[in-house]
């Protein structure tokens, strides 16, 4: 393999001298000339209609001529488009206009079952051949090769990397054979039915019961109320090859199919491929008519609503361990619209109106309302209803007070128009989002374009370019008035019936009649949550300190990446690329991460991830930060990594200086608003009870702690520990952690380099010098539990047929082992293939077992390989047996060449695609100004995957999987709880 060497001049503050290498093969792959050109005569579609694209008929929305559309004589509609993002990838979709709402009562679950059987065997694929075939081409299962079944549509998906003409043409042919002629045999039904039942079991329990009750209440009297894609146990077990074939013949017809293909190819080539493979598809008989989905109708016993909408069906669900929630909806019939510009102006006004109401609801929650959160949204669901949905989470058992608080804010929005200042704020946020869409239009991924078109087909609307969205929005300036927004708000809350659902952990807290009465009762409008109209400008904020330019600047040798060192100890990396216009990512790595917490500070870590950012900076509190960000593209995410804390935000060059100021100010002058902490404590208290309700909740609560050998820092704080946290203690812990340890600022993306250096000089260069990490913190290890012959058994309080199992093996960490960690990734993926084949395909015991390999770069310990599965309790021993058998065989014999190829090729293709984006390089290079080993590790990024051998994988399996023996955890039901009703996904 050829290697591109770039020697760099090292400067003393960076403490390294190294030849740095970008993975040449990956660069060559991404820079390859992928475009498929049209061949005269061969690539001449007969049925393309550039002057009459079918999705734009009847609308005045400007035609997006990037799309080429056509209709075949048999009824198949297609849409193709040339797109090279990511390079060399083709995104292929086949959408069938039928889902669970098209099923007869005896066919419930058949649309989803048929999706599985379509991948099992077909005209050109033998049993189980499809997924491995596409893996060998570099398409990973789930991410690149997948399907989904919804109420009104079933979509088959393929994102094919490295798609030359031959591979693409063959893939279209093979997918056409899958859709048109799946092998719906008794043997294949016998193979797929256990997998679907395992998927049903995985989704069972409280969440399904809640979902089913919500669906049956909100869509009462409509087909959607009793149609879930997963189906029922009775109908699935009653499926026969004849009945499944009948469903396929009825709905899998050319008239119901839309084919979308987006690739770096002449659209004539793509259209010709589709026409060639789909034009001869014929199904006997006349197309079936879609059933009537029904309309929302108020029941005879509806209560007169205070807002003029009758209050109809209501349901109270009691689920021990679940957090309280109240959801209600104002329902209107779904009506197929003429998707024109005027219609979209109305949609935009509704969205602005909802945005203003949601700001007020958030203000009320922050100011001490009786609810944790509340939100309003308008949704059109499954061509069945057009609804306005209100969701809220009460802080305690006084749900009526929470509901009253929310309704009082909404009542105020219905009574009086918003202020112009409120309107201007939400308009500015919308405008920046639309501008950002235009800036990034040329780098929109082909998969997103394909999914957008398929989604538009489902809801019977057109598509529009980002520029059209911006133009339409800006053409509405004369409509952004208080009176027009008041009318839009009132329209959101008009309808035919109000329906409601309440979730509570305690029996007797409410009845359905009490919930209906509360919604029908008059409520006084409250203006306490209105925006005060004030504004805040960055220019008025205090300076971080005395600006200081970097003392040293040096090229790192990876493209034009530059390292900066400031006299105060801060270091920075700049990576500028113009292939992602308008996209900049800022990542600030500082301090000790998990190493920095004392044993008794787990609650502060947990609460800090929620409350730290919202507690403000300098003189600004949470609401002030919102005002400051208005009309700007700013982000402020926070996380705790093994060896460092991380601030991260997505921004653009115009707002980059402000983004850097926010991060630097959080280190230099943190504020300590108590309200976000109080809210975080309430959220943690409400969440804790739900952890024991099912296997996944128990694992969310305990697994990190157990896999770190019960290290108290990683324990989930219980309500007593949360209650003990005071604002003074919270401040003391986080002031310590924010103030210590090194700082690295990484700015990657479409930047003006010198302007960025100047902004860094005013912010991070102006920070006071920071103390180093104490030795006992810097060197603190994370340990792993010893292997156990019998699994540690935890219990959950949910359904008796629900269990989960985990087996994990320790590996390591640190940048010196990055090459090995990449091969461990491959080992984990091979393990996953075997586990999936055995547990899902062969035994039907589990739907989606997970195997993952982790390797922290900032610390020397803490990495692991773990396998996790949700499974029936009786099959838990079988999982451990199977996992240890796979581990032993991989250690003794290694993987086959084909197994290795099935994971290596998707990884190579992932690198080829991902490395065109700046975040890929950010993830590779972060920390490199303090740790030159990360730069050296780039030398082998490609070869570590591409040149891995079965012998290397075998040696790693022997060292790690057999050397330790594995730590096992099983989560079993505590009591024989009743099984959940089998419906929903």
From TrEMBL:
Stretches assigned to the Peptidase M16 C-terminal domain: 240-427, 724-905
Signal peptide: 1-28
Domain Peptidase M16 N-terminal span(s) in chain numbering: 89-202
Single GO molecular function: metal ion binding
Gene Ontology annotations of biological process type: proteolysis
Listed Gene3D superfamilies: Metalloenzyme, LuxS/M16 peptidase-like
InterPro entries referenced in this protein's UniProt entry, alphabetically: Metalloenz_LuxS/M16, Pept_M16_N, Peptidase_M16, Peptidase_M16_C
The protein's name: Insulinase family protein
Keyword list, A-Z: Hydrolase, Metalloprotease, Protease, Signal, Zinc
Similarity section: Belongs to the peptidase M16 family.
